[in-house]
Amino acid sequence: MIRCIIIEDQPPAQRVLQKYISDYGNMELLGTFTDALQAMDFLRTVPLDLIFLDIHLPKISGIDFLRTLHPRPNVILTTAFSEYALESYEYDVVDYLLKPFSFERFVQAMAKLHVAKSGTPDTEKEGRSLSFPEFIFIKSGYEHIKINVSNIRFIQSDADYTELFTTEKKYLSQEPLRYWEETLDPQKFKRIHKSYILNLSHIQKVIGNQIRLDEKTTLPIGRAFKEDFMKYILQ
Question: Directed axis angle between helix 11-24 and helix 103-117, to 10°?
Answer without folding.
Answer: 60
